[in-house]
Design goal:
This protein has two helices and no strands. With about 50 residues, the chain is mostly helical. The protein has a domain at about 5-35. The model has no long low-confidence stretch (mean pLDDT about 80). Helix content is about 40%, strand content about 0%. This is Transposase.
Length: about 50
Amino acid sequence: MGNGVIDGWYNTRRIQKRLGWLSPDEYEAKYYADQARAEPVAVEPPTPALTR
């Protein structure tokens, strides 16, 4: 069994200390849920410089 197969199957389910004891799939789902709840940031377009 190739290494990529093991990583693609096993590592998506194994909890990770550096991910807050979540599996990579759970961490990714939490990340996108947090992004959806985040307050939108108002971005104003730049003001063009006046030239003569």
